[in-house]
Amino acid sequence: MKALLEAGLHFGHQTRRWNPKMRRYIFAKREGIHIIDLQKTLVNLRQAYEFVVQVAASGRKVLFVGTKKQALAAIAEEATRCGQPYVIYRWLGGTLTNFITIRSRLDYMEELLARKESGDLERLPKKEAKALEEKLEKLLRVLGGLRGLSELPGALFVVDPHREHIAVDEANKLDIPVVAIVDTNCDPDLIQYPIPGNDDAIRGIRLIAGKIADAVIEGQNRREALGLEAAVPAPAIPAIMIRGRKTVEEEEEEVWEEETEEEGEE
Q1: Which domain range does residue 131 map to?
Q2: 8 Å CB contact between 37 and 25
Q3: Burial, 32: exposed, middle or buried (Cβ in 10 Å; 0-12, 13-18, 19+)?
C-alpha cells in the first residue's frame, strides 16, 4: 500500500473529467481532483497478478501496450525483462483483428533484418540499399516490439485504455482478456482485470508494469517446473527507434500501402 501511495497512483483526473462508472473505485474528492481508493487498487492488482501468472503458465504471451510518453520506457523495459511483445509507438489498427496481415509484415521485417545483419544490403546499389534500410527502420519503429508474436496473445496489459481504446476494442472482439491501469476517466466495464490508478504517474506505471512482468516470470517458472516447454521469449529489437519527421498517420498508411504493393508484385 505504501508503495502505491508513494508512486502517486491515488491521484485521479479532475472531477469534471470523470467516468461515473469509476465511482466504485473513488475514495474522495480533493481540490477538484478525484482520489482513487488504493485498497481496491491493491485487491485488483492481486487478482490481475494471479490471472497473468495463469496466462504465462499456459504458454501464452501477454502483449504490453502503452503509447503515451509516460509509459514508453516502463512498457518497453518490463516487457523485454519478461520476454513479452509490446507496443509503444502507436497501436496499428488491425494488430489483433487483422493479425494475418500484421504477421506478414513482421515476417518481411525479419527478412530485411536478416539481410542487413548478413551484409547482403551492402552488396546492393546504394540507392536500393538505402530504400530498404529506411523501410526496415520504419517497420522496427512501428512493429519492432511485436517480434516473436507468432500467434494472438493470451492477454493484453494496457496503460490508459481510454487512449488505447482501439486495442481494447480489438481484444474485446476476439475475447482476449485485458488487464489495464484505469484512471478516473476510463470505462472499467470494458476491462476484464481493471487496476484503478493514476495512468499519468511514471513511477506508478513502472510499479504496476513491473508487477505484471513479475507475474509473467512466475508463470513461466511454474510451467518450466512442470517440465513443459516455455514460450519462446520475444527477441529484442536492435534499438528503440525514435519517430522521424513523418507523422505516425503517414507511416501507418505507408505500412499498409507496402503490403498491397508487395501482394501485387507477387
Answers
A1: 97-144+253-266
A2: yes
A3: exposed
Same domain for 48 and 159: yes
156 and 130: one domain?
A: no
244: how many CB neighbours lie within 10 A of its CB?
12
**What DSSP letter does each residue of 156-184 carry, written as one string?**
EEEE-TTTTHHHHHHHHHTT--EEEEE-T
For β-strands 155-159 and 62-65, DSSP reports them as parallel
Residue 230: the pLDDT is: 60
Residue 17 sits in the same domain as residue 135: no
Query: Do residues 119 and 171 both lie within one domain?
Result: no
Model pLDDT, residue 245: 36
Q: Give the total number of structural domains in the chain.
A: 2
Residue 175 maps to a domain? yes
Q: What is the pLDDT of residues 90-122, one digit of tens each?
A: 999 999 999 999 999 999 999 999 999 899 888
Give residue 5's identity as a one-letter amino acid code: L
Q: Measured on CA atoms in the order 43, 47, 52, 53, is the torsion positive or negative?
A: positive
Residues 224-263 pLDDT 10s: 988 876 666 666 555 434 344 344 444 445 555 554 454 4
Residues 68 and 192 grouped into a single domain: yes
Cα distance between residue 13 and residue 183, in whole Å: 7
Helix (H) or strand (E) holding 30: strand 26-30
